Amino acid sequence: LAKTTQPISMDSYEGQEVNITCSHNNIATNDYITWYQQFPSQGPRFIIQGYKTKVTNEVASLFIPADRKSSTLSLPRVSLSDTAVYYCLVGATDKLIFGTGTRLQVFP
Amino acid sequence: ETGVTQTPRHLVMGMTNKKSLKCEQHLGHNAMYWYKQSAKKPLELMFVYSLEERVENNSVPSRFSPECPNSSHLFLHLHTLQPEDSALYLCASSLASGGRTQETQYFGPGTRLLVL
Q1: What's the gap in Å between the CA of A62 and the closest CA on chain B?
Q2: Is A30 on the interface with B (CB under 8 A)?
């Protein structure tokens, strides 16, 4: 099972771009990388998923280098409502391991 | 609204009580999951059901008993719980549970359980 490592917390201000990097050194060939967002007392919510290079949707971008041993979630122009915990996950759907995630605090 | 509902949203029970948590998904998914999230701890996967068959049980104590009567409903039966079982219990569903692709999981709002 691929283990992930993320910063425990990050601070930012409204309007800034936030980049959260996740390390997954033992990622398997078939593993996808998925990021979830969780607000207090709610279930996690899917943000973005990728396998390699770059993926972009209306919420975020995901950058994955060629060796796939890390990935970076990029949130453009964050707002106060982006304050949440962000989880990076790799591996099979029925064996996902949610780590402690990265607690992002956005200030006015 | 993710298409996954959970009831009740809050539950207080004594250690001798028997209660059940219910999860329902309206997404046509074939896999359902129970997670436990204790205060300041990561989510812990408890049970996985695929096409109504249990495929994963992560060494969960027998005082937690899951039931999946069909692909849309999932229950977690609770009996003789301990105070340390107090947590947020989250249900999730996905189109499938395995294979080459990591399927997106859709989570319910959770049931906040307090065991006295």
Answers
A1: 16
A2: yes
Tens of pLDDT, residues A4-55: 899 999 999 999 999 999 999 988 888 889 999 999 888 999 999 999 999 9
Three-state secondary structure call for residue B116? coil
- What does each C-alpha distance from A48 to A56, B36, B97 come to in angstroms? 8, 23, 18
**A9-43 core/surface letters (b: 16 or more CB in 10 A; e: else):** eeebeeeeebebebebeebeeebbbbbbbbeeebb
State chain A's mean pLDDT as an integer. 92
| A97 contacts B102? CB cut-off 8 A | no
Measured between beta carbons, which residues in chain A are less than 8 angstroms from residue B55?
94
Residue to substitute from B32, B43, B100, interface A, most A β-carbons within 10 A: B43
Integer CA distances (angstroms), B62 to A73, B15, B65, B67, B79, in order:
39, 14, 6, 13, 9
Nearest CB neighbour to B107, from listed A43, A49, A101: A43
Q: Which two tokens stand for residue B73?
A: 């409903």
Which position has the token pair 């936030």?
A18
Distance CA B1, CA B73 (A): 17
Evaluate the omega torsion of the peptide bond into residue B8 and state whether it is cis, within 30 degrees of 0: yes
Beta B64-70 vs B73-79: how paired, if at all? antiparallel
Among chain A residues, CA nearest to B35:
A43
